[in-house]
Write a structure and sequence with these properties.
alpha+beta, Jelly Rolls, 2 domains, six-stranded antiparallel beta sheet, four-stranded antiparallel beta sheet, 7 helices, 10 strands, transmembrane helix
Length: 243
């Protein structure tokens, strides 16, 4: 049994003779498969298992910043122990031969389910916090004289409306974060870019609403309040679950 350690951004070529009948399990971080034509392939998360024989994969790459490790099992090491020395590979990575026993098959699906449930749970708690914070901020603004009246509708926005809108778009943010955790090699970074861009776009309607200066300023601030709650919380959760 051997362990392949890939530092952040490192790439190691797949040599057919070394990977013949080898079975790999990602034990830490994320590993991306590089296809025969040089195109990026699927990203494998922790506990994902793979078999490269006959797949055309030509290299393994670490798309993250932290070291990723792959446990490699070959038929000749299943029943015995390996005494091969440490071997240096491309990009400063090292393949270490380890004396170890063969572990049972890893449950990648269970691990992925756990990560998704953790992210969704954190997101829903953050959603409730954002709804409460935004509603309280709107109530405070109304207490100091902001009427939240929109000329087109002729009616003031009720406090409950802020809670509903905040809850809806916060849940949308949780869905986006979950999708990026599933399909992106850098979910935290992509989420920040996406969430910030959507927040900026959300500031346009208040500016075009035709409301007075106090209402417009308050609406802009109330768009930023939930963003200040949701974006850092979901970003930290994504980073925790991809390390």
């Amino acid at each position: 049994m051997r362990t392949l350690a890939l530092r952040g951004g490192a790439r190691v070529a797949v040599v057919a003779t070394e990977w013949h009948d080898a079975f790999g399990v990602v034990t830490r971080g994320r590993v991306q498969l590089e296809l025969r034509d040089g195109q990026p392939g699927p990203v494998l998360g922790t506990d994902a298992a793979f078999w490269l024989r006959g797949t055309g994969v030509r290299a393994l790459r670490n798309p993250g910043r932290r070291t990723a490790t792959v446990r490699i099992v070959t038929p000749r090491t299943v029943t015995g122990q390996s005494t091969q020395p440490v071997r240096q590979l491309d990009g400063g990575t090292a393949m270490n031969s380890m004396n170890d026993t063969v572990a049972g098959p890893a449950s990648g699906r269970t691990r992925r389910t756990y990560r998704f449930r953790g992210l969704v749970g954190t997101g829903l708690v953050a959603t409730l916090a954002a709804m409460v914070t935004t509603t309280l901020a709107a109530a405070l603004a109304r207490a100091v004289g902001v009427d939240f009246e929109i000329p087109d509708g002729g009616e003031a926005i009720p406090l409950g409306g802020f809670a509903v809108v905040t809850g809806f778009f916060s849940v949308v943010g949780v869905v986006i974060a979950a999708a990026l955790l599933r399909w992106s090699a850098r979910p935290a970074d992509r989420f920040v870019w996406t969430a910030v861009a959507l927040t900026v776009i959300s500031l346009i309607p208040p500016l075009l609403s035709g409301a007075d200066a106090a209402t417009t300023t308050a609406l802009l601030g109330l768009h930023l309040v939930p963003a200040a709650v949701m974006i850092p919380t979901l970003t930290r959760s994504l980073r925790t679950r991809t390390e």
